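Posting this for the archive.
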Amino acid sequence: MSIVITPISPVAFSVFGLPVRWYALAYIAAFVVGYFLLKRMMRSDKCAIKLSKKELDDLLTWVILGVIIGGRLGYVLFYNLSFFISHPLEIFAVWHGGMSFHGGLIGVIIAAFLCGRSWSRGLKILDLLSIVAPIGLFFGRMANFINMELMGRPTDSSLGVFFNGVSDVPRHASPIYEGLTEGVLLFIIMALLYRFTNLRRWPGALCSIMAMCYAVFRIYCEQFRMPDTQIGFLTSWGLTMGQLLSGVLFLCGCALFCVAVGYRRK
């Protein structure tokens, strides 16, 4: 028997008549929690790089810009380019939805190297960000679920979710699956690697592992998620754009890990 859920309004509350959406709160929570966790990590002797308060504040600013601009441009380029070519002003209408993790990741990488100003420092910053990034992924997926976005494929499983008055058939709660794997599980893995191994001393090692783990989790969870309607499946055997991009990400993570190991052996 499927789980029946009453839809939740995508608007959490209003301030002077202006709606504040759950999705916006998810971003704010991710940045705030991530910032304070980074500050705490900076106080530890285990931290491979120390950033001043100004440097950390600058990093937060660049990361916010990287996530938003990169995530939006990634969605435009990877998922719906023909539409945005015909409607260029819609690129700026982020409240209509449409963000890409892979695009946001590229934005964060650029932000890290702009703040680090060198190859080694940039990788060390990315290693720290890889510890806190799953927190943002978790909050984002929970907001997707509340907004009834990115819902899964139809299922007869007892795990199927039926949104009362909205769903036509029970579907996999794919945002929940992604939140638990790409968010909670990935955070646990990265925190344990940071706490109990010396990988934090190898510039690029942790962020490459994070990239590979995310790619594996995303490829797996995409099996339960409906492909974007404007793209559909890329192949007759069911490859999605998310799986394709994650496959590329996995290969990039493998290459970076080899670089990190080689750097360590020097």
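Residues 20-147+156-200 form one domain. The mean pLDDT is 91.
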